[in-house]
Amino acid sequence: MNEKITVITGCSSGFGLLISIELAKSGYHVIATMRDLRKQDLLLHEAKMNGVESSITVHELDVTSQTSINNLKAYIEKIGRIDVLINNAGFAGAGFVEEIPIAEYRKQFETNFFGVIAVTQAFLPLMRAQQNGLIINMSSISGRMGFPGMSPYVSSKHALEGWSECLRLEMQPFGIHVALIEPGSFKTNIWSSGKHITDQSMQKESPYFHYMKQIEQYIEKGEPKFGDPIKVAKKVAKIASQSNPSLRVPIGKGVSINLFFKNFFQWKLWERLFLKILYK
Ligand SMILES: NC(=O)c1ccc[n+]([C@@H]2O[C@H](COP(=O)([O-])OP(=O)(O)OC[C@H]3O[C@@H](n4cnc5c(N)ncnc54)[C@H](OP(=O)(O)O)[C@@H]3O)[C@@H](O)[C@H]2O)c1
């Protein structure tokens, strides 16, 4: 393969699928990975529609399985290079802290955090030997600010942000760059099949039922205004072409303004505003 090689995780839907198409259109050879290969038809259909099917290879990868990661690693080592790694796979764990079994937090971190570490570790030796490479981690506005009823997701993305800062500082001297994409709300499956709400917080007997319902209603009300995920895919393609992108790339409606308020208002003022909207 003469083209630059990019590996993307979680390409069965949403951002991962669209980023695969955008990067293939930009001239990359994309190794589009997904944990269930039976879901590849949508990606292959889109690739065909865009005339880029020969630039996309689908490969199995479950980011929580070291065996699966090792198989992909062996495949990439045969190709002999990797230019861009995009850690995109993720899901959103929700519920109230008191009611979320610790096992659910662990599951969340296995995918959104430890999965990213394990996949990255697999490819760092190759990138270091090349003395170049770009790692793009799909974070979220939830990696910068808390949200009630979403603590598994929010904490996994906060951990990803801190870890990415360390990785960036460690790898820059070796010619490897790290960037975080921080989207607001975009129309993908993360709001349906990708959202795992702890059952207990959805039961009428729960002391949090009313609060959880209000949060759900707030999210539902906002849904028509969620962004088009193609914007994120195009932004990622642009970042991939930069030799040294910024560490953080916030994107989406209201994201910059929310970050501004969070960073420049006193927390007490910020939480008063926030709770006024969310808890009536
Ligand atoms: N959409 C938003 O508003 C938004 C905002 C901020 C950040 N994000 C982030 O964007 C990323 C992509 O999500 P999305 O919005 O595109 O949602 P999505 O359509 O639900 O896509 C999530 C992808 O991750 C995959 N995945 C989940 N667990 C996996 C595992 N263990 N191994 C491999 N793949 C796995 C899913 O595969 P299956 O089909 O097999 O489940 C799917 O391909 C996530 O990291 C999410 O946190 C999304």
From TrEMBL:
Coiled coil stretches, renumbered: none
Pfam families to which the protein is assigned, alphabetical: adh_short
Keyword presence, Coiled coil: no
CDD domains associated with the record: 17beta-HSD-like_SDR_c (cd05374)
Protein keywords: Oxidoreductase
InterPro entries per UniProt: NAD(P)-bd_dom_sf, Sc_DH/Rdtase_CS, SDR_fam, SDR_oxidoreductase
SUPFAM superfamilies noted in UniProt: NAD(P)-binding Rossmann-fold domains
Family per similarity comment: Belongs to the short-chain dehydrogenases/reductases (SDR) family.
NCBIfam families to which the protein is assigned, alphabetical: PRK06914.1
Protein name: SDR family oxidoreductase
Organism of this sequence: Cytobacillus dafuensis
